[in-house]
UniProtKB/TrEMBL annotation:
Descriptive protein name: TnsA endonuclease N terminal
Residue ranges of domain TnsA endonuclease N-terminal in the record: 34-125
Stored InterPro entries: Restrct_endonuc-II-like, TnsA_N, tRNA_endonuc-like_dom_sf
Highest classification ranks of the organism: Bacteria, Pseudomonadati, Pseudomonadota, Betaproteobacteria, Burkholderiales
GO molecular function list: endonuclease activity; nucleic acid binding
Membrane-spanning residues: none
CDD domains: TnsA_endonuclease-like
Keyword annotations: Endonuclease, Hydrolase, Nuclease
């Protein structure tokens, strides 16, 4: 999962530079959270004097380009709205099934220590808690296509599609058939029903499992149906 990606943000339209599928996966998970106000990727720590001190303390040479020190970067700096105030937190991504070597561990310690000194909560995000990160990423990309198709969320229509979709939902029935049934009940074009479903599932109104692949030719698994 080492592919770079450049998605445009749903929140602000800005194009993001994401360096791996793991970063893209975490970016999508954050985008779905209503409390997230802003995301900054590859956030540089320009406090070079302090990071050079920390590098010496942790026993590694500071990152450099030629003779000059280069800023360390934090994968994500996240602004969240929590209890009527904006809170900053930093996140670095640990790919699943990869052991951290001494240099990488020291680099993460530098990030952690610097953030702590700035009053910023820092966390190492371990994606191995997901059963299959690649499946989760594929599912989120499928759902997020409502944005690419130009769908504009409509609360009333969205609720109708959700209600009718859940009325026709059956296990082990391909998603395309379920959407066709819901579209017929609402007298919608199939494309409208599909994008309304994608948005509803993206927003969490339709509680699908992110641990199972979602595709039109596959049965849909809801979280309540997970084994």
């Amino acid at each position: 999962m080492g592919n770079c990606d450049t998605p445009n943000s749903i929140r602000n339209g800005r194009q993001y530079e994401l360096l791996s599928d793991f970063e893209t996966l975490y970016f999508y998970l954050l985008e779905r959270k209503q409390s997230v106000v802003d995301l900054r990727e590859q956030f540089p720590i320009f406090d070079l004097a302090r990071t050079q001190q920390l590098a010496a303390e942790f026993g590694i040479p500071h990152k450099r380009v030629g003779r000059y020190p280069e800023p360390y970067t934090i994968d994500f700096l996240v602004t969240e709205h929590v209890e009527d105030q904006h809170v900053l937190r930093a996140a670095s991504i640990k790919p699943p099934d990869i052991e951290l070597d001494a240099v990488t561990s020291a680099k993460l310690s530098i990030e952690h220590q610097w953030c702590e000194e700035q009053g910023i909560q820092w966390e190492l995000v371990d994606l191995s808690t997901l059963p299959d990160p690649q499946v989760t990423l594929s599912t989120l990309r499928f759902l997020r296509r409502w944005r690419a198709h130009g769908w504009q969320p409509e609360p009333v229509l969205g609720k109708m599609v959700r209600d009718h979709f859940m009325h026709v939902y059956e296990r082990n029935v391909p998603l395309s058939i379920l959407l066709k049934r819901a579209a017929q009940r609402l007298r919608l074009k199939s494309e409208q029903a599909e994008d309304a479903f994608r948005y509803g599932a993206w927003a969490g109104d339709i509680n699908i499992s992110l641990n199972h692949e979602v595709a039109l030719n596959l049965p849909l698994v809801l979280r309540n149906d997970e084994v």
